[in-house]
Amino acid sequence: MANRPDPRDPADVTLNPLFARPGEARSLPRFRIGEQPMLPETAYQIVHDEAMLDGNARLNLATFVGTWMDDEARRLYAEAFDKNMIDKDEYPQTAAIEERCWRMVADLWHAPDPETTIGCSTIGSSEACMLGGLALKRRWQESRRAQGKPVERPNLVMSSAVQVVWEKFCDYWDVEPRYVPITEEHRTLDGHGLREHVDENTIGVVSILGVTYTGMYEPVAQVSAALDEIQKETGLDIRIHVDGASGAMVAPFLQPELAWDFRVPRVASINTSGHKYGLVYPGLGWVVWRERSLLPESLVFTVSYFGGAMPTFALNFSRPGAQVLLQYFQFLRLGREGYREVQQASQDVAKFLAAGIGRLDAFELWNDASDISVFAWRQTPGHSRNWTLYDLSDRLRQKGWLVPAYPMPDDLADMTVQRIVVRNGLSRDMARSLLDDIEESVRYFDKLTEPLPDAPRSSYHH
Ligand SMILES: Cc1ncc(COP(=O)(O)O)c(C=O)c1O
Fold first, then answer.
1. b/e for 143-155, b at 16 or more Cβ within 10 A?
2. Distance CA 223, CA 240 (A)
3. Which residues, renumbered to this chain, carry the PTM N6-(pyridoxal phosphate)lysine (predicted)?
4. Ligand 1 test: best mutation among 65, 121, 123, 126, most atoms within 8 Å of CB?
């Protein structure tokens, strides 16, 4: 929710006289729609100039979201920005391409039977996670009701390092979140301590492929093995949803032998962000269920399609269709080998950066980008009392780089880390410049004889 208007903002937006066309107002209300229309060129200039002050997307090493595509993709985008994904009847080809794409993704994740698997596109992983979670909840409720058991107190088990969407899911849909704390010894949800967290009210366990804080994979097969043991002991048959927002479009190409997907029988559903390592511009996610029976019928609605009916399961109604076409473009353009090369190139750059940062006395790596091309580090304990990673983040921002620093989740909240997300488009040369800037900053900070005043702490969210 937006804060109240900043009182330092003047009430009006003033317009450079050079930009205002004859007869147009030179000043416009900031928080009210103006009375009169203006020419599109003038409106463009105002919006363009204000947006220019945003950070440079290519230097934003905080985000996982795609910031570069081929020119042909941009052309396709411009041709398709008016398509509404929900209008399956009006845009049947876009609807057909959507289905083709989720089937391709299901195949990539080893869905056992292409005939009975089911999936859809979403606006991003957040919506996809909500759908995965809702299916777990509804399935648990239906099975409990069939046994005449109460359904009032569902819970979901996950690591304390989950992305905020899972907190939202639990809050919005009245599910108790049960967080398994991560520690120095157990840096991800690895099955350790699971027994104390699950019970007959557990709707599922979330495994993250590419933990947002660090980029590390949670060992899905190991979590599954722990649940097998729990089932032997208690009879509870608990399914896994894999939140592969970033990793589900990396592991199939960089770690094809790693069994984290539908090869693990307990995995009921998987989500990913098409707009992260799916390499599409923002506004696209995917969710796939192993088989139709895992997505309760009661959650599915129908929309009209070719004069017939098409099942849909979504939180949004209207949503842009262009990104789905862009995903299909990328699947055609890159093929499996192209995806492998792009992800490998990002990982090479990330490992290069991690090695360079790990070599500095000031830092200790938390992980080294060997899962997805993301890694985090902390200040070496005792290195300096005069500066923190927040100061480094602040100084790098002066050079245009966005490299966030933030506390780890509960139980490790005393630890501050800094993280780099390498995406397609960060070249080795750019990485070299970033490393130079980090080294120069550390040299500068290490000459300080007194502590810096507190640096602004970015309100960075996971
Ligand atoms: C593990 C994980 N889950 C979910 C999300 C939310 O994804 P989206 O931004 O596509 O909604 C993210 C975003 O970073 C994430 O890292």
1. ebeeeeeeeeebb
2. 9
3. 276
4. 126
Pairwise CA distance, residues 372 & 217, whole Å: 8
Q: 247: Cβ below 6 Å to ligand 1?
A: no
List, for the chain, all residue ranges whose pLDDT scores fall below the cut of 70.
1-7, 455-462
Strands 363-365 and 374-379 turn out to be antiparallel
Q: Which two tokens stand for residue 135?
A: 């299916």
C-alpha angle 95-99-100 in degrees, rounded to nearest 5: 115
**Distance (Å) from CA 245 to ligand 1 centroid:** 5
DSSP state of 84: B
Residue among 158, 273, 373 whose CB has most ligand 1 atoms within 8 A, to mutate: 273
pLDDT for 55 equals 80
Q: Which residue has the tokens 């060992």?
A: 219
What pLDDT is recorded for position 47?
Answer: 93
Counting atoms of ligand 1 from 1, which one is nearest the CA of 208? 1
The CA distances from residue 232 to 180, 225, 227, 228, 269, in Å, are 21, 11, 9, 6, 23
Q: Which pLDDT belongs to residue 310?
A: 79
CB 153 within 8 A of CB 197: no
Distance of CA 247 to the CA centre of its chain: 10
336-446 CATH pick, 3.30.1370.100, 3.40.50.460, 3.90.1150.160, 3.40.50.300: 3.90.1150.160
**Tokens at residue 40, please?**
């599109």
Give the pairing of strands 405-407 and 416-421: antiparallel
| Protein residue with its CA nearest to atom 16 in ligand 1 | 212
Residue 72 makes CB contacts below 8 A (sequence gap 6+) with 329, 333
Domain boundaries along the sequence of the chain: 13-54, 74-330, 336-446
CATH 3.40.640.10 correct for 74-330: yes
- Ligand 1 binding pocket includes 277 (Cβ within 6 Å): no
The model scores a pTM over 0.85: yes
Spatial separation of the C-alpha atoms in residues 98 and 324, rounded to whole Å = 6
Written as one string, the DSSP assignment of 243-306 is: E-TTGGGTHHHH-TT---STTSTTEEEEEEETTTTT---SS-EEEEESSGGGS-GGG-EEEEET
Cα–Cα dist 85/75, whole Å: 18
Q: What type of residue sits at position 252?
A: P
Q: State the amino acid at position 141 in one-letter form.
A: Q
